[in-house]
Amino acid sequence: MRIAITGVSGRMGRMLVDTAATMNGVEVTGATERPGSDWIGQDLGQALGGAASGVTVTDDLAQALEQADVAIDFTAPAATLEHARICADMGRALVIGTTGFSDDELAALAPFAARACFVRAGNMSLGVNLLTRVVKQVAAALDEAFDIEVVEAHHRHKVDAPSGTALMLGEAAAEGRGVRLADVADRGRDGITGARKPGDIGFSAIRGGSIIGTHDVIFAGEGETITLSHVATDRSLFARGALKAALWCDGKPPGAYDMLSVLGLE
Ligand SMILES: NC(=O)C1=CN([C@@H]2O[C@H](COP(=O)(O)OP(=O)(O)OC[C@H]3O[C@@H](n4cnc5c(N)ncnc54)[C@H](OP(=O)(O)O)[C@@H]3O)[C@@H](O)[C@H]2O)C=CC1
Ligand SMILES: O=C(O)C1=N[C@H](C(=O)O)C[C@H](O)C1
Q: What's the whole-model pTM score?
């Protein structure tokens, strides 16, 4: 599978190049960066401090996709939307790891996914996707006597909160409870907040240092607490998931898919 990586100089972009080199059946044949980046026009391998790879970094995804079957995108919502339009126009699959979309941006993404295979997930790891199933089950088994709180921690560079993973876990808890997350989410407490509303699902975000990604879903009852946790210790985890999704897209009809489909966890 020939892969174009967008935002290739970023933390996940670099990790995707390194991880692809260790996996069978995938080859990085295209790479993009933001217009104006120092990386544009450079050989990808040399830009990464290694040997020449024969892949030139461009700011034009359409050009990168001429030699690729699928794009993998870990950039930022506005850039991802533009990449989605290009993939849809060219009939190329797209794996989206970007997080922090607004509701309007997600609505704008949907028509593009109707024209090619799109896989999107706020977390590409097996562990987190499996955890969403467990959270749904536990939330379904417990009533509102158990308060649900999602606590996440990430590195100091992360720009969005709650994390995409926290929102996936919150959605799973809401689904288990049979409610809409939008109706019960409590996404920021400060000052005299009043007592906690029964049934709310709370979110808290910690930012600091080089934390890769830690998520706890807390079910707090009277006299007992259940905590379900996931700790990421290596970004290659997300890259492996994204590359697996790219391989999975081969021959799939157009549509919006998630990692539960890719991992067979539905
Ligand atoms: N789903 C998952 O499993 C995971 C998701 N993520 C998400 O992925 C996203 C990226 O994370 P991370 O790699 O840490 O962030 P980085 O900021 O390190 O990387 C993003 C890269 O995208 C580049 N970029 C921005 N706009 C464009 C554009 N128009 N064309 C090409 N490249 C562009 C940025 O350039 P510049 O620096 O110049 O802006 C940067 O190099 C975030 O939303 C994060 O939450 C991260 C890890 C796992
Ligand atoms: O920005 C990150 O780093 C991460 N983002 C994703 C998220 O928002 O949940 C996945 C992972 O936690 C790392």
A: 0.98
Is the separation of the CB atoms in 186 and 197 below 8 Å? yes
What is the tens place of the pLDDT at every residue in 27-79?
Answer: 999 999 999 999 999 999 999 999 999 999 999 999 999 999 999 999 999 99
141 and 107 share one domain: no
Pocket flag, ligand 1, residue 11 (CB < 6 Å): yes
Residues 17 and 99 in one domain: yes
For the CA of 123, the nearest atom of ligand 2: 10
**Whose alpha carbon is nearest atom 19 of ligand 1?**
10
199 close to ligand 1 (CB < 6 Angstrom): no
Residue 214 and residue 257 in one domain: no
Helices within 57-147 (DSSP H only): 61-65, 77-90, 103-113, 126-141
ipTM: 0.99
Ligand 1 contacts CB of residue 30 (under 6 A) = no
Q: What is the CATH number of the domain that holds 143?
A: 3.30.360.10
Which residue range is the domain that position 49 belongs to?
2-120+235-263
